[in-house]
Amino acid sequence: MDQQRIRNFSIIAHIDHGKSTLADRILELTDTVTGREMRAQVLDTMELERERGITIKAQAVRVTWKGHELNLIDTPGHVDFTYEVSRSLQACEGAVLVVDAAQGIEAQTVANAYLAIENDLEIVPVVNKIDLPQADPDASAAEIADLVGDTAEHVLRISAKTGDGVAEVLDAIIERIPPPSGDTAAPSRALVFDSSYDQYRGVVAFVRMVDASFHAREPLRAMAQGTRFEAEEVGFFSPTMSAAKELGAGEVGYVITGLKDVSRLRVGDTLTSERRPADEPLPGYKDVKPMVFAGLFPTDSDDYPELRDALEKLKLNDASLFYEPETSQALGFGFRCGFLGLLHMEIVRERLEREFDLDLLVTAPNVAYLVVTKAGEELEVHNPSEMPREVERIEEPYIKASIIVPKDFVGPVMELNTERRGRFDHMEYLSEERVLLLYELPLGEIVLDYYDQLKSRTKGYASFDYDLVGFREGKLERVDVLIAGEPVDALSLIVHREGAYARGRQLVDRLREEIPRQFFDVPVQAAIGSRVIARETIKAKRKDVLAKCYGGDITRKRKLLEQQKKGKKRMKQVGSVEVPQEAFLAVLNLDGGKK
Amino acid sequence: MSAGAPVRHLYVHLPFCASRCGYCDFVTVVGRGGQHRAYVDALLAELSLERGVLAPRLESVFLGGGTPTFTAPAELRRLLRALPPAEEVTVEANPETVTPGVGALLRDGGVTRVSLGAQSFQPRLLSMLERGAGPDDVRRAVYALRDVGFDNISLDLVYGIPSQSAADLDADLSEALALEPEHLSCYELEAKRGTRFTHAHGAELARQAEAMESYFERVVARVTGAGFRWYETANFCRLPQLADGRDLRSRHNLAYWRSRDYLGLGIGAVSTIHGRRWRTTPRLGAYLAALAAGERPPREVEELSAPVRRSERVLLGLRLDEPLALEPGLERAVDWSAVERLERLGLVESGRSTDGTLALTTHGRFLGGGVTAELLA
Are A481 and A412 spatial neighbours (Cβ–Cβ below 8 Å)? Predict the structure, then answer.
């Protein structure tokens, strides 16, 4: 296909603003799927994606409109997958930016629009859901025009639900988005913007051809990783896989690699022909690193092998998931897992519980720390209990947060961000009512209960998004918890020096509430090194008997004891203290859970 | 059914009461004055159906309720005469029902021991429990029983009543001890689900739980200090050296705690015989109808497997102050690593490798429920 007749685009939108519905309408309108095949949100294949209404994995579909080949590249909707979003955007020349006519711009809209602008994409602004009674298309159009530097008249007004205005969107894609401009004579190059694993065919790479073309059976090479393989098949999605003789310059499609390990082909890498390789890879490849870590332990320690198998299977389709075995004195055998962000963690946990039927205990998450020891050694620490006691310097990841709130809530949000060591960056009125706040915050202050706090302090009106900006030094301390004198590794946490006392106090108070009284006094302490900063005592039980036990009471009494015994089995033994599993989550909601 | 050792302990349930106390969850019948005769007929019919499992002479008979002494005197007399002879015959009584006449009736009927439901000596607390008797009724009842020659009287006390202070408790214990009973049972008030009392006072009880948690220790200290043996979690008897060498433990209740077989007659009564436990229907009409037709009343049966019987042997045996003898096989009912842990905490004493026994320490007995739950395999 002549590149002049190709358009590659993404749809970007805040969650629930109608991205998937618009994609469905486009597939119908272009006769890519028949009505019978049509099923809501065709592009989202995973059960979980459909239920949560979010898209985890990008996919690409080829449609035909007025003699043009249009490739719709689907992007994950959430910031945890920013890297994947930016790969997808790099595969396009333009983006349709969708905003809900009733909601207006949200934090994700802003973050995604900035990403698109950074990638030099032509933006087609669209106001969706104009059929809703509470829709205010004019206000939303003004906001979106302001955001992307366009005029409000230029903003399309549609209803993806009814199909109203969708044809005009397709026309605008052809009119406004430039065609690809690959070099058909140069050595071939293609960007891997996503991949998936098929148990029969191995790794399937989703690619955007930039220069020249690939053919079936052609030997290829991934330039950054050096992985070599033969293209078993090339083709495109319409919306199911259709094999083709070749993928030409500017086209979007797939390459079946036959590789049996997803880690051998990373998203962002450049594929080139083995016979006539390119000199330079396409720009921008980077290794994505997990930033949020948590321990995953089976509630029943017998399930450890099942958890290991499940993580192996998930990893096949999710190269960004990291895990390594972890042994905790308190929780037994499990895995330390690394995630791109909080949503990623939540999705992995849900998939483990739902698809693999595992009952899990997930410890409080923490971030990755870069540490320089007194001896000058550099370490990356993923677990507070592994933080060396003597350190020269600790660096922690920082984020740039975009928060959009009604103007009445600016005060509470600023207060929250100050408590969380945030640095104010920028504030602007999106409309008379709504304010955009930009802050820099340590990611470690976000991972525990920031979302909950933000929601409760803004009555649910805030929208929040973030992007990693790098590592910075922080005055951080490791706080350990001792129960009956025994340090509990799973409860250690890293906190800022100024908040250490308050955090230690809250944690100890929470544990006193969560741990039932035992047969003996149990001191609970928070300590920095050998210095105790907070202490509480769980007083010993003084009586625990069933007073009356005669001929008619024996069965009931026996069942009561069996019940009590079962309850004890669910507890974790820390030294001689029985600690309920819930106590290990005490650290998760120190502020919110206060009674 | 008659295979196996003959049963030597008999419980007879007399459900009739003048009124139902708010905290009570026993099987009771109020306001069926006309049915006392039919009920005693039914009991005697049930007895004759089950006579085969009983030994000719029993160790103990226990008439519980309800309020056995509320039963029409003629019917109570007829019942007592028809029961098989036993070394210990106990009748439960509410103080206000014990007149000199009733005392004589019991004495003549072969009763050797009376258990009086005193509960408290404070009018305020008694009315909270909806008890019919006042403090003077308790005293009058004890004197009446002494007058006709009873030398084995037990008093029931309840503690942990809403608003009961430590001083209230001490006063109750003093009043009870001043009557010089041979035996005392002291129960913490339980807010049992579904009772009127729990509905009215449950929240208050929960609030006071912490303030009242020392009451159990207080009861044990005061009563043992007055020359009583704390022989079971909630039961005390005067020491032999203060009672002409008599062992004043309740022989009938000891049978439960030693996992002996027992036959229970009457509505809601439980029997455990030869590895099988059953509860007779609590419904008076169904009970009377079945026995009038010469049939056994409806029962709910529970088969007790060998491991269940072993667990029960341990959980009941550890309620007593005498060490539990580890008979062959009983070791399997115990988690010995838990015992080791509990021994280190000073809650259990294991003579597993010496005299083959297991016992709770004094401290362990205050925590007997939790300790037993932990050490059962």
Answer: no
Distance CA A296, CA A358 (A): 11
Query: Measuring CA to CA, how many Å separate A244 from each of A8, A193, A231, A252?
Result: 18, 19, 12, 12
Give me the pLDDT at residue A372, please.
Answer: 94
Whether the CB of B257 is below 8 Å from some CB of chain A: the reply is yes
Query: Given B190, B315, B347, which is nearest A557 (Cβ)?
Result: B315
Q: Residue B270: pLDDT band by 50, 70, 90 thresholds?
A: very high
Taking an 8 Å cut-off on Cβ atoms, the answer to whether A558 and B272 are in contact is no
CB-nearest partner of A554 from B312, B371, B372: B312
Please choose, from the candidates B144, B372, B356, the residue with its C-alpha nearest in 3D space to the C-alpha of residue A549: B372
Residues of B in contact with A541 (CB under 8 A): 213, 367, 370
Q: pLDDT tens-digit profile of B112-162?
A: 999 999 999 999 999 888 888 889 999 999 999 999 999 999 999 999 998
Looking at residue B249, its amino acid is R
**Gyration radius (Cα) of chain B, Å:** 21
Q: Which two tokens stand for residue A109?
A: 């809209």
List all residues 6 or more positions away from A549 whose beta carbon is below 8 Å from its beta carbon: A557, B233, B256, B257, B316, B319
For an interface test with B, give the residue of A518, A539, A541, A554 to mutate (most B CBs within 10 A). Answer: A554
For residue B274, how many other CB atoms are within 10 A of its CB?
13
Asked whether residue A55 carries a pLDDT value surpassing 50, the answer given is no
B319 has a chain A CB within 8 A of its CB: yes
Whether B256 and chain A come into contact, CB under 8 Å, resolves to yes
ipTM of the shown complex: 0.92
pTM here is 0.69
For residue B298, list its beta bridge partners.
none
What does residue A417 show for φ and ψ, rounded to 5 degrees?
Answer: -65, -35
Structure tokens at B116: 């009086």
| Helix, strand, coil shares, percent, chain A, to 5 | 30, 35, 35
Which residue from A minimizes the CA distance to B340? A576
In total, chain B counts a number of residues equal to: 377
Measured between beta carbons, which residues in chain B are less than 8 angstroms from residue A556?
none
| Nearest residue, CB atoms, B370 vs list A519, A547, A558 | A519
CB hemisphere CA count around A593 (13 angstroms)? 19
Which range is least confidently modeled, A402-406, A420-424, B217-221, B332-336? Answer: A402-406
Distances (CA, A) of A338 to A288, A382, A546: 11, 8, 48
Contact A555 B374 (CB under 8 A): no
- Do A255 and A216 form a contact (C-beta atoms < 8 A)? no
Cβ count near A415 (within 10 Å): 11
A522-528 and A531-538 strand pairing: antiparallel
Q: Is B247 on the interface with A (CB under 8 A)?
A: no
Which chain B residue shows the shortest CA-CA distance from A551? B256
Residues of A with a Cβ under 8 Å from any B Cβ are 519-520, 541-552, 554-555, 557-558, 560-561, 564-565, 568, 576
> What is the model's pLDDT at position A498?
87
* Cα(A595)–Cα(A510) distance, integer angstroms: 9
Sign of the C-alpha dihedral, residues A484, A485, A486, A489? positive
Per the CB < 8 Å rule, is A551 touching B256?
Answer: yes
Nearest neighbour of B345 by CB, restricted to A519, A546, A547: A519
